[in-house]
Each structure stands twice: as C-alpha cells, then as structure tokens.
Amino acid sequence: MSNRVRKDKDSHRKLWAVLFVIVSLFCIIFFVARGRFQAPVSSKAALLVLSPFQQAVSWVGSQVSHVTGSIWEIVTVHEQNKMLRNEVEQLRVQNLEASEALAENERLRTLLGYRQMMTQFDMVGARVIGRDSATWSSVIIIDRGQKDGVNTDMTVVTEKGLVGHILEAGWNTSKVQLILDPRSSVGTIVQRAESRVAGIVQGDLDNPTMPQMVNIPKNADVVEGDVIVTSGFGGTYPKGIVVGLVSSLQNDSGGLLKIGLLEPAVDFQKLEDVMVITESREAPPEPIKPPAQTPGTETDPAAQAAAAKAAEENPQ
Predict the structure, then answer these.
(1) Which of 47, 92, 138, 173 gets the highest tally of CB atoms within 10 A of its CB?
(2) 202: which strand partners?
(3) pLDDT (tens digit, 9 = 90+) per residue, 282-306?
(4) 195, 234 contact by CB (below 8 A)
(5) Cα angle 128-208-163, degrees, rounded to a multiple of 5
(6) Domain residues of the chain, as ranges?
(7) In the predicted model, is pLDDT for residue 243 greater than 70?
(8) Biggest alpha carbon distance in the chain?
(9) Which residues contact 3 (CB under 8 A, 6 or more apart)?
(10) Which CATH superfamily is domain 122-280 in?
(11) 146 vs 141: CA distance, rounded Å
(12) Is 142 helix (H, G, I), strand (E, B) or coil?
C-alpha cells in the first residue's frame, strides 16, 4: 500500500515538473519572439493567460534581488563593525599607554625637582620592579644595583620622604628594607623647634602600614600632628628627611615611656619610583656673624687696631 502511495506522489511530481518546463519554454519563446513581430489578436489572450506567470517571475526576481541586497548590506555592516571594534580597541590601548606615560612623566618630573632641590645629596633614580614574597609589606626590589653605584645601607627616598635603606645590593637589582619592617630602626627627632625630642622609628607587626616612634619620655613635648624627621644619629640615614606625622600617642607597657603611632609620609601601596642617595654632604652651616661692638669694648683685633690708629691720627 505504501509503495502505491509513493508511486502516485512520484507521478504527480513528474507531471508538475513537465508542466513547469512546458510553461517555461513557452514564456521564453514568447518573450524572445515578442520583439521581432507584432503579436496578433490571439496573442493577447496568451498574454492574459501568461500575465500571472510574468508577475510571479517578476515578484520572485525582485524578492531575490532584495534578499541578495539585504545579505550584502548585512555582510558589509558586519565587516564595518568589526573594523570599528578593532579601531576602538586600538584607541583604548593607546589611551591607556598615553595615560600611563603621562603619569610616569609627572612622577619623574617631581623626583627630578626634588633631586635638584636637595643639592647636598647625590641621587640615582630607580623603579620598583617587585616585592620580596617572604616579606611582602616590608621589602621591595628596585632596578638599580652595584653597576649604578648602589651599595648596601644607602638611603632610599621619594620627594615625599623616607622609604628605607638598601638591604642587599646585587649587580643590577637591589633589595630595599622599608621603614615598615619591624627589623628596621631609624633615628628620628621631632621637627618642631620647641620640642626636638629624639626617638626611634620601627615597624609594627600588629599594624604593618603604620610604624611606631618608641623610646619617647613620658613627659616629652610630643603632640599629635608633629612632623618626625631623621636625626642623623647612627650614620645610616642623613639628617632632616621626613619620616611621617604623629597620628596618636599612647603609653608603653611599662608606663615610663610613650609610643607615637606614625602616618608615613610615603604611600607604600603606591610606590613606583624612588631615589637612592649615593652620597650625602651635610649642608654647611651659615657663617656666624659677630654682634655689633660698642667703641672701647672691641674684641676683634682688627677693630682694635683701627681704633688705635684713629686715636693716633686724632689725639685729644
């Protein structure tokens, strides 16, 4: 039964195919002959019969043309979007590179200004290239070493203040121990002229981002907001480099001394470029000017000789 139904369907398909071929040939012959002779009256009937086929063919052609044009537009728009996305990505990368270069230039310009201002120091610029994995918060690695004149115990600074000192100096890289390291010890003094209280700044294990100033006498003149600078004691750090500000004060466990919690002058989380002090020359003191002397009480030999000569020339 199924074979018979299949044969019937096949025969119907063949019939329709033959009719389609005949109609197509007729249309082709008609359109070819149309331009060569005048169609008789009987051909008008054929035109009337073939008109629906012509309209169908025309509609199919227009649809095919429309679909082809739409596909081409889609392909073109897709390619244009791809090109625009690539251009946007390139511009984004260029913008990021330009912003990074601008920020780096600004940092280096600031460091250069600091080096030109601090004439008592010879300094070498360096870039932070890593942190010691064992002591992440207290030791950094810079891209300068012995070939650049960098050696152990040299002071490391930025334009804002003290960073630390060279812990190990390799040939082209060095390790820097930050003042945040509990193993570090920096001799410091209160910058305020009325105070000048000395102490030691070292890192705190319980608060690794804020060092402590210890060994402060209980009755010492130290208040919150005081600027703490290096004292120059010990020989490692030159005198007068800013360490930080006193954030708070508290008594130590014994009750005889005070501890000052410091806010570092340097933001160690954003540390990218530093300066290594390779040579330090303390600024020469200003010459002492003697006080004005009243006549007859001169202690300067030159002044006394001048007074004696004046007395000889004008005897009374």
Answers:
(1) 138
(2) 212
(3) 654 445 455 555 555 545 556 566 6
(4) no
(5) 35
(6) 122-280
(7) yes
(8) 164
(9) none
(10) Rod shape-determining protein MreC, domain 1 (2.40.10.340)
(11) 14
(12) strand
